[in-house]
Every structure is written in structure tokens, then in C-alpha cells.
Amino acid sequence: MTDSTKRPASTLILLGATGDLSQRMLIPSLFGLHAEGLLPPGFRLVGAARRSMSDAEFRDFARAAVTKYLPRDRQNENKLNQFLEALHYHNVDLGDPACFEPVRVLLGEAAQKPMGVFLSIAPSLFVNAVTALKQAGMAGATVRVALEKPLGEDLASSRVINDTIASLFPEDRTFRIDHYLGKETVQNLLVLRFGNILFEKLWNAQYIDHVDITVAETVGLEGRTAYFDGAGTLRDMVQNHMLQLLALVAMEPPGQFDSGAVRDEKVKVLRALRKLTPETVKTHTVVGQYGPGAIGNARVQGYAEDLGKPSGVDTFVAIKAHIDNWRWQGVPFYLRTGKRLPARKTEVAIQFKPVPHSMFATRGGKLDANRLRLRLQPEEDVRLSMMAKVPGLDREGMRLEEVALDLSLANAFGSHRRRIAYERLLLDFVEGDSTLFVRRDEVEAQWSWIDTINGGWAKAGIKPQVYDAGSWGPDTDFGNKEQNGDWHD
What we know:
The structure is a single chain. This protein is of the alpha/beta class. The protein has two domains: about 5-150, 3-Layer(aba) Sandwich (Rossmann fold), CATH 3.40.50; about 180-485, 2-Layer Sandwich (Dihydrodipicolinate Reductase, domain 2). It contains 17 helices and 17 strands. The chain has helices at about 5, 20-35, 55-70, 75-85, 100-105, 125-135, 155-170, 185-195, 195-200, 225-250, 260-270, 280-285, 305, 410, 420-430, 440-460, 480-485, and strands at about 10-15, 45-50, 85-90, 115-120, 145, 175, 210-215, 285-290, 295, 300, 315-320, 335-340, 345-350, 370-375, 380-390, 400-410, 465-470. The strands form three sheets. The chain has a nine-stranded mixed β-sheet. Strands 3-2-1-4-5-6 form a six-stranded parallel β-sheet. Helix 7 (about 155-170) links the parallel strand 5 and strand 6 (about 175). Helix 6 (about 125-135) runs parallel beside helix 7 (about 155-170). The chain starts with a helix and ends in a 6-residue tail after the last helix.
């Protein structure tokens, strides 16, 4: 890492500044950091997008975003006014290679100081954006760039994007974002494993039966029609968020908590994923698309009705994955994600093996295997199920019951401020810390595995099965033999 990448960026250019992500997450997160004095002195935010807008109009836009999306107890009118004074806006058309020239003029000498450029735009525009930055003299050694996912639609297109970015921004100045990595529970997964001897000693094929990773959404298209129908759930959710969670669960202990060591171990896991074939996709995957149904008490349309035309895109994917290495040989990892499911939930569940012999069976005691759940949303918590004896004299047999040891992060750390995941990632980007960002070889290992699934579906002629909105996906016995169907509990 060069000296310039270690220095905080005093200017952040937010390309796509009027978009939904900027409004809901990025601008509120930046204000939250400003309000606590975490941004560098003299920090300046330059918004850029296709929409014509004055500085004053952009500041009104930012004020509305903070007011609507940041919790009320974190809002402060005086600090918000200070923050807004540091905001500027420029209309840019990425079809014009000279579109950043006015931004460079605005920045003046600041353009030669450490600066971050956040590309909250469609990946198809990344090449245009970095080319325009170069033409304006804004791609030098003091500039770092952040890229929102997805990076391509397959391995080949991902390499084209990465090659273009790398021609101007070397790896130590390229920050690929997966916002799940900014969540507290995701980082607590590392602490749970590598900060407590209790779990790490059991974290292997000898003691773990299987692992469930679930990302369930109740929403449908939610204004993402053009992007989602071209991507589908496998590319939108599995390729990035879910494989990053899998890598964190399965990785070997890094020597230290820094960007190189952590990402080295993650990429080893991703490269060890067993490739699926046109034959194994038939038995190891389920693909679906939601039809009409009900979410709660509300009737909702099917995907084709939401889209306005028939489509073969996947809105539900379940995969039985294996990692071919010493630690995880024989342990299935169940990845499941879908839209229009009954509940919004993201969690990792570690199912341990049962004890080898139950001494309580002859007394009527029934044992269930221990299960560790790490929930990321809607609430962040950690729960470990344990067996305990139900109080009583046991004259008609011993009764055993599962009880939970709960660690609610909201309760355990009630005095600590809960943050938007993007706050941590934006601060790390401004400061040049890439530990929680995704390296190129990780992205390409993820795409390499995903491509075998897409290719297998195509060769095997597999199409999405229709499932009712409000159900847990297509009616299938997939995984039930190993899990008793409890993945959605």
C-alpha cells in the first residue's frame, strides 16, 4: 500500500449522487460520520449525476435524505447545516469523455490531494467513468475508487471491467463494496470464531453437520426492474452477499486482522468450492420464480405481472454447496435466497452433530443437536440452542427441552450507537482501509463458481418453478432429508 492510499481523502466525489442508494444510505451515512467528527477536517462532498441540479438543490436533496432515512435521535440541525455547506453538485454525462473537467476546475488544488471517487452507478458505466476521470487528470496516485456491485454478469465480463479499472487504479486503490461486510454481526462472526476457543475447536467436519445461509426477502422488484430482470437472484444475491458470508464462515484463521490476511483466506475457500455440472445442478439446486400470492394479509402479483411481461428470470435459488478441503469435507452448505417469501430474514445457522450416545434415552429423554444462529436482519443477534432438563420429579420419564442462550446485540451493547453498514465502509474508504472490501481474485473466484451453475442450468434445460408469493419457495424436498425442513424457522 502506498503512502497516498493511507492518507484520508479530503474530497469524496459521489457519482450517482441523486440515485436511490445515495438517498437512502450514502448521504445519511456521511452525515452521521460528520456529526461525530469522524471525517477529515475540511472534508468536501461533490455530488455528480445526469440530473441537472444546482448546489442549493442538491443540498435540499441531501437534507431531505438525512431527515427521512437517519434515525431521529442522530439528527442535529446545526451539524446538518455545517455538513450541507461542504456539498457541491455537478451535472455529468458519462457519454462525454470531458464531463469531469468542470469538477476538476471546482476542486482546484484539492484535485492533487487524496481523493475518493464512489461509483454508485450501473457497472456498464464504470469504464466510461474511469476513462473520463483519467482525461480530467483525476486518476492519479492520490485517487482511490469505490465500486458498487455487481461487477459484471459473468467471469468474462467481470474481467473486462476489472482490467479497465486496473489500467488506471491498481488493486490498493480499488475498493469493491459488498455492504454485508459492514454489518456488525458479520464482523462478530469473525470474533465469535477466532476470539473464543469454545467455537473454533468445534468448527470443522468432525462436529458440524451442515451450515444454512438464508437471505429471505418479502419485497418484489421494488423499482429495480431493468437491472433485476437482466440479473436474477443467482447473480444479484448469491454471487456476492451469500458467497462472502460462506467464505467468512469457512475460512481458516488469518494470521492477523488486516486486508491481505483476511482476503487471502477468503479466496482459498471460494476456490475450493466444488464446481457443479449439468448433472449435479439437477440434484443440488432449486430455481424458482414467484407467482401471485399473499404477503401478510396483502395480495400481491406474480413476477410476470410486476414486470409486465413473461420472463424466465430466477427470483428464488437454493443450492447445496460443498467445500473440498480438509476442514469441510462432507459438510453441505445450504444457500437459500428469494423474493416474496413470508418473512424478511438474513442469517447463518451452524447445525452441530448430535452427541455420539445419549445416556438419557432409556429414561425417555430426547436430545436435539446444538444449533448456532447468527442473525443479520431484521435484528442482529446470536443464539445458541442447548439442551436442558425440564424441572420435575421425572416419575414418568425424564423430559429434556431445548433452551436458547441469547446474545441480542441491541441489548448487550445498548449504550453503543447502532450504525448503518455503509458508515463503516465509507469511513474505511475515506481512510484507505480495504480490509472489509472485496479483492479482484475473490470476485473472479465467485463468478467462476456461479458460471458453472448458470451453464449447468442452460445445458440441463432447467427453468424456474413457479411458487406462491408468501410461501418459502418451490414445493420440493430439497435439503429436507438432512435438515428436517427447518431452514426457514
